[in-house]
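Bug #77: duplicate submission created two jobs. Keeping one. Sequence:
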Amino acid sequence: MSLVTRAQEIKYLNVYYERTGSQIIVMYGAKGIGKQAIISDFLVDKPSYYYKARPASEREQLYQWGKELMSGTSRLPKYPEYADIFAVITDQSNLKKVIVIDEFQFIVKNSPTFIAKLVELAHGQWKKSQILIILLSSQVSWIENGMVSKIGQQAYELSGFLKIKELSFSDVLTMNQEFQMRNAIETYAILGGNLRMWQYFDAHLSVEENICTNILAPQAFLHHHAERVVALELRETGIYNTILAAIAEGHNKLNDLFLHTGFSRAKISVYLKNLMELGLVEKVLSYYRITNHFVHFHFTYLYPNQSDLSRLPAIEFLRTHILPTFKSYVASYFKAACISRLEQWNRQKKLPLIFEKFGEWRGKDGAIDIIASDADGKNLIGLCNWEKPLMTHEDYEWLLFCVDKAEVSVDYIYLFSTGRFDEKLSLEAKVKQNIFLIGVDDL
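Kept job's structure:
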C-alpha cells in the first residue's frame, strides 16, 4: 500500500536518513495507526534490518535475537552480547543502513545498558559505516511519560521523535474509496482514522450490518477492542472506565464528573491528565470530550448496556440502544469530516483564499461549527447539519446570530448538509456570491 497520505512522516524520516553521520530516532503511535506501512514505504531501496522485540528477560531477548540472526554465514554465541548482534546487523554497505527495532520498550525495561550500547553503535564504535536507528513503539504513554526517566542521560543522544497520529477523514477516505460517502462518515464516527480498524468493516455492507456483525457479535474482534485500548496502558481501569462512561453520558465538566462519580476533584484531574496524555480525551474550553472514536462509541452504547449486550440478539440491541441516538452521535464527527475536507481543499487551493487556521467557536448562547482565518484576518465560517432532513434559512440566520455573538467578521459561508436546502436558503446563496451550499455527496 502506498501511503501518499503519510508523505510528511516519510519526509521526516528521509531528512534524518540524508544527514551526515548516524542518528537514533523514536517513532511511536497506537497499535494499528500505520507505523508499519510508513516504515515499509520509507525502506524502499534502502539497505535495512528489522527486529521485533519480545516481552522477555534480557537474556531471553538476546537468545531469541541471536537465533533470528543465525543464518547463512552468521556465527553467534548461543547467548550473544549486544556487541555480537550489532556486529552482524551493521554489515558494510555503500549506502546508509536503516536498523528498525520494533516495540523496543520491551528491551529497555529489562536492560539498563541497551540504549547506551545503541548510542555507542551510532557513534561508530562498532562499525564505521553510517546508520539510522529507528526505535518503534506502540506504548504511547510510556514513551511520553516513562522513557526519559528510564534511560536517563542517554535521552540526550536521541536525534528526534516522530509521533504517528490518526489519519484525518479525507486521508482515511483516500485509502477506502470503495465506501459510499454517507457510510464513510458514519464509519469514521465509529472507527476514526485508524486504518487497521477499517479493515474490520465491509464497504459492501450497511453501517448497521457492520455494527451487528463486526462489533456486537460476541466473537467479533471489535467486541472487546475498546476495553483492550484502555487496559493496554492504564492501571485501575475501573476508575478510568467510570470517568469515560461519565463523559460519554454528558457529564463533561469537572464539577459534573465530581458530582456523578463521587471521586474527589483532585483525583479526577489526575486521571483526566493521564487520559489526555494517551490521546483518549481532550479539553475544549471548560469541558472534556473523548477523542478516540471507538472508545467513545463503546462508552456511549456498549458499556452502559452490558446486560442487554450479553442477552439480546445483535439486531435487537442495535434497534434498542444505538439507532435511536446514532444520528446525534455521528453529527459531531460530521463536523470533523467537513473541516477535514475544507483543509484538503485549502491545500489544493480550491477555496476562495488560503486559510491558515481551522477551528470552532463555542459561546453561552450558541456555537459556530467551523471558523477558518487567513493571514489578513478574513474568515470563512461553516455550519454542519447531519441530523435534520432539511437545512433552512432559519438555520442560516441562527449562524449569523452566533457570528454576531462571537464578534467575528464574515467573508465566506460554507453550509454543509446531509439533507436538502430549503428554497429561501438556495435563493440566498444564488444572490450572494459568498455562500456555498455543500451536500453530503459533494464532499
